[in-house]
Each structure stands twice: as C-alpha cells, then as structure tokens.
Amino acid sequence: MPTLSVFADVPVAHKLEGSLLKAYRQDNDPSKIFLVYRVCMTDEGLPWVSLVVHKTRLQIAQDPSLVYEYLPGLGSKSFIQASLELLFGKHSPVIMENRAGGVHTVGESGSFRLGAQFLRTWHRGTHTVCIVSYQKESHGLIFQDMGFEVYEYCIWDPKQRRLDSNVLLSVVERAPSGCILVIGNPVDCRLTQSQWAKLMSTMKSKQIFPFLDIPCQGLSTGDLEEDAGVLQYFVSWGFEFFCSQCLSKNFGIYDESVGTLVVVALNNEQLLCVLSQLMSYAQALWLNPPARGSRIITTILCNPTLQEEWKLSLKAVVEKMMLIKEKVKEKLRLLGTPGSWDHITEQTGIHGYLGLSYQQVQYLIKKHVYIPKNSQINFTCINTNNIEYITQSISEAVFSTEHTEN
Amino acid sequence: MPTLSVFADVPVAHKLEGSLLKAYRQDNDPSKIFLVYRVCMTDEGLPWVSLVVHKTRLQIAQDPSLVYEYLPGLGSKSFIQASLELLFGKHSPVIMENRAGGVHTVGESGSFRLGAQFLRTWHRGTHTVCIVSYQKESHGLIFQDMGFEVYEYCIWDPKQRRLDSNVLLSVVERAPSGCILVIGNPVDCRLTQSQWAKLMSTMKSKQIFPFLDIPCQGLSTGDLEEDAGVLQYFVSWGFEFFCSQCLSKNFGIYDESVGTLVVVALNNEQLLCVLSQLMSYAQALWLNPPARGSRIITTILCNPTLQEEWKLSLKAVVEKMMLIKEKVKEKLRLLGTPGSWDHITEQTGIHGYLGLSYQQVQYLIKKHVYIPKNSQINFTCINTNNIEYITQSISEAVFSTEHTEN
Fold first, then answer.
1. Correct CATH for A19-50+307-400 of 1.10.10.10, 3.90.1150.10, 3.30.1490.20, 3.20.20.370
2. What is the reported pLDDT for B17?
3. What is the model's pLDDT at position A2?
4. Chain A within 8 Å of B37 (Cβ-Cβ)?
5. ipTM score assigned to the predicted complex
6. A104 and A260 Cβ atoms separated by less than 8 Å
7. Low-confidence residues in chain B, pLDDT < 70
8. With an 8 Å Cβ cutoff, are B69 and A57 in contact?
9. How many whole angstroms separate alpha carbon B41 and alpha carbon A35?
10. What topology is assigned to A69-290 in CATH?
11. pLDDT band per the 50, 70, 90 thresholds, residue A108
C-alpha cells in the first residue's frame, strides 16, 4: 500500500507574474529587449543604485562601533522617525503632536500585509476594499487573502490614452460607506485642489478609511515633497489613515528592501494602542525585522550632506527618464508614426503607458521587444543603445495595424 | 460633534514577553543581573558573534562584483542549498532524490508563520497542533492566530527536576489522528533509538504530520550533526515533513536573522507544487526576502576553511557554557546548598532549568538576579564577574525556603 501523502492534492500555484520575463529569457535573438523591469535601470541595463548608497554601505561595514543585536519588534526607532519626517516633513502637525508612528516592515509587501491584518480584526466598517491606482499591484491579492472583498480600478483610460482623474472621484461616490480605500501612488492621480477637497469631504461623510501607498517617493516628479504632497490633504482634513511607505526603489536597495507601515491617529494614546497591536502581528510574521536596509537609509537621511547627494541622484534619474520620453516621442514623430504621442510625456514616473493595442503589443513581441498587454513599460529600460530599435519597432507596429484599428 | 474614530476601540496589545526585562531595566541596583537573554552572551555581557561572521561581513562589503538586485521569491538558491546540506548532510537521500527544498524566510518566526499558513489551507487532517518542547516558544501563538487548536507540552518535569522523555511518547499516543506535531529542538528530547522507532511507528499509523524545529543547530551539543540527527529518523521512515531551520543564533547574526522553511516531500513533483504555493504566500508576506544574513551564511557554508572556523567557534561556545554549568554546580556544593544540582549539568544547550521553586525565584529577584518563574535561565549570561554573586544568591534562596518547602 503506498503511503498516503499530505501533499498529494497540492497543485502548482498560479504565478503572479513572470511569464513575459520567462519568454524573454528563453528568446535567443540578440536584439531582444525587456521593458517591464520593476525598478529604475541604468544605461548599462542594470538596476539603478544611488551612488550615496554604495558609499554608505561601505562606511557601515567598516564601523567598529556598530552593535549587531536584534532590532526591537517595531523596528529601528531612528529609521521610523527619519521615514516619517521624510514623508510628512519635520514640522507636520502629526509629528509635532506625536500622533504619527510606524512599524518597520520587511520587503515590498510587508506593510500592506501588516495593515490588512490589522484592519481585518479592528476595522468596524464593511470588509470591502476599493483600490484605485495607475498600475496593477499585488495589494489586491493581499487583501483578498485576508478575506476582504476587493474592487480594483485603474486611472489610465486606454481608449483616450490619458489619465482619468474622475475615476478616483467616481469610485468614492459609489463606494459603500465604511469601506477601505487604497490609493496607489496618489501623486499619479493629478487631482486639482478643489477635486481633492471634494474627495476629502465625501470620504469623511462616508467614513471611508484611507490606506495610501507611497511606493517610490521622489521618483515620480523628482521632488520628494511633491511626491508625498497629497498626504497633507489627509492630515489637514484630520483623517486617521495608514500609509505604506516603501523605501527600496528610491534608494536602489533591492536585496534589503524595507519600508514602513505608517499610522496616523487622532491622538498619541490611540496611536500607541494601534502600534502595540501591530507589533504583536509583526512578532508572529517575523519577530524582528532585518536591520541592513534600514541602517543604510537612516544613515543617509540623518546626515544632511548625504541626504542632499541622495536628493540630487533622484532628480538626475527623473530628468534622464523625462529626456528619454521626449526622445521616444520625437523619434516616433520623425518616423511619421500615425497618431499623437503626447501621452508619453504627459505621464510622470518611471512606468508609463505606450497606449498600444493588443495587436500592436503582439507585433512588438514578435520583434523581440517584450512589453505587457496593457503596454505599460518602464521607460528607464530604454537607453541610447536600444532606443532606435524600439521606436522603429513601435512605429512599424502602428503602421502594420493602421487599417485594421479604429 | 467629535470625529468618529476607527481606532477608538483598539486596546493595548497583550505583551508576549518583556515584563521581566522591563523590571530589570528599571532596577537601579549596581549588582542587578539579567539571566534570560535569548541568545549566547560573551564574558563581556554582549551577544556572541562568531568571529568568522565579522570577517565575512567586511569581505562582502568590499566585494565590487556583488549584485544588489532583488532576490527571487523563494530566496537565494545557494543559501537554501547550503542550509539543506547543513541540516541533512550532502548525501542524504532527500537531497540526492531532489525531494527536499526550502523557502528563505525572514526573522525568527517567518518559517513557522509560512508553514502554518500553508497547513491551514492544504492539510487535510484535523486542525489540531500539539507542540512538545523544552521551553515555551511563540510557535503556539502563531498557530493559534492561524485558527488552529493548539496544545502545548513541556518535557521538563519541575518536580523531578529532570527531562521527561515520556512526554513526547504519551502526547503522540493521545493525540488525535491526522494532527500536526511540532517538536521543538528534537535533540532536547533525548529519546533512545527504540523510543524514536516507537514514536515513528505511532506517528505513521496515526498519520500525524511532523513540523520540526531546529532553532540553533550546533549550540545544543556543540556538534552540528548530532543536533540535527533526529531528522534522519524522519527521513529513513519516509515521512513528509516541514522543518523550521533558524540560522541566526548559531552564527550570531541577530539583526539580519534569517532561516529556512524546509520541506521534505515524497517526490520532486510534489515538492515543486508545495514550494510554488509557499512562494505565493511569501510574496504576500514580504515579496522578496532580505539578502544580507543569507549572504553571510552562504559565504561561510560554501567555503571549507570558513566553515571549519565557524564549527570551531560553535564548539568553543558550548564547551565554555558546559564549564560554567560545572562551576555553578560545584560552587553550590561548596556552599553546602541543600539538594542535588546534577540536573544543571545533565541538561544540554544554552538554556537550562535551575529547578527552583516560585518562592526561591522571588528571593532571587529581590536580590536583583532576574530569572523567570520557571527558573529557566541562559547559562551564557553567567560569567567570571557575576558567578560568585549568582551562586551565593541561589544558595541563600534555597536555604531561606528550606523549611517551608517539600
């Protein structure tokens, strides 16, 4: 009789991503190009690392005074303080009034995971989560795994090839009272001041709990304050909220990625209660968070010279990326490619939609240019070596379908 | 009207531990001593770090060829391979037959957290977990949080002041069929070969799923193979099982603690299915694990000279700790302390029970010697500077209660 196996019925898990990357890796054509990396890439096609990070890493390794003990359950205090100040500014009322705090989280999903677990237990509203974002993220799956009902909305309108800032407003209008609203990288939403005010007012009256995502502060517009500016609306309207602050892409610390689950409460007493609950969840998730990434980031943020160097490096990345977008647009124009390509330069951030149809995407993949179905690419994957081939291929793709579309 | 607060009903979380440490910290007496640190301590009262770790850390920081990209979801492949070989030996059938694998986990609870989540979904038996261990761990809370019914048993018999190896056997006899059995640091159980055989046979017939814990391989007996030797029984009896392998205490990497959730399946096909499911859970927990700790450990394990240095450093720690136990016993004897103190040297590992009563523990705390109610202490906290005071205080405590006890 064969042994009964506990694992016999376990199927292979559905993969979240990776089939495009797999196809790219199996492609032997020398001209193959992958345009969907998650992080900023350098001209050499490697993940970008802020130079100041390299320097700091070496400095830390040579520091004989460093203590390698366990970090506390909530993580490094100085790291959390520096992260909060980066997000809100030193003189924000939430910091001055001791009602903003955070938990040092692990990896890029840690803060959503921790926040979702807290809300599952303590949020008294409906167990509905509405996610509004510019691009598909894994947050939806995290909330689903925790038993929430999840609705996802994209602010990119593929037909009009433009951002539709009304999506956020209409989602909030239709959302059930007492739900949770996740706004992915709010700087992408580009609401006007009066639109934000309307949003705040509706959210207040419907008691919607905001869970904001700041995935790469400084890499959207090149300006740290501008990228997190939307938080000020939530602060000034007196909201309680969570914010997932990820600090790996904007420092170029990928293998030690850390972040903070930021909590803003109405007063210090409530903040401490919430943090104590979060700590008990974090203990069951990982007990003590890893120190390396947070140590590098804290060193940079707490030293004005290093911080300035870091800011300049962010600005340089964004300027270069904007230049690439301009060049792509200009080359498509010179090739006489039908249609307007202004939407390329109108989008902020590293990732942007090319605005191509399914057929055009398929054409590009046949030309060994790997882009996803929704044609959102990472513009820093385009460099002086491959820009000619890429724009030529896009142009051909558009010409090839000129008479079959619209 | 005051704003309705989402956080208004959130109470302060119950603390898992720390009240004794808090009392110790608030104590201003210069002779105060804390004997319950989680990790090996040096003579200077600092957490022990294997010297080879310091060297490797510096070497890694100066390596210009290192790539700092995201690790894959399952973690560093070479780290997992090296960890598996450390646990089972290179030529173990489970490695040769490609049916042992692992997921790189974060912190000290990561592997139990991940394993519990998998079992919650895929284990078809009862949702009952029996935990047998030498000391109280946080595993019980992790399984409870995941919705399991948890029963915890301790193999230390405080009345007889000795390990009771029958506890494990009788728990398995009484456990419901199809339950999960967690064995904390199995080397502590000290079953004879025939007792293990009996245990295996009962577990097989009752289809009990083993989840083993190897928290500090090499720090129990000073011998790496001996500390993980029990796994060989499970392998040779053809079990499928999980094993939480923690690699922070035995390297002295506390601030970057990592481990592996080890999976042993009946064949490679099932192993890959289980790993793919675990990867999807890990993605929601942290997406990519941090690299630092695993990089140091892999460097040491894959270099025979460094590995040998590391092994010698483990042996030295254990020898020193055994010498301290001998000295404590001898000093208690010389002070004429009533009773036998052989149980101190009979216990392996850093943590051991002094075998004191509640009143005696209270006496010690009044003398500023901080030990927990169950009198289990970390023997590496005792050093040449404090041994006199500690043994004197223990002796006084025993004398003081001589006529009130037994």
1. 3.90.1150.10
2. 55
3. 45
4. no
5. 0.79
6. yes
7. 1-4, 15-18, 404-406
8. no
9. 50
10. Aspartate Aminotransferase; domain 2 (3.40.640)
11. confident
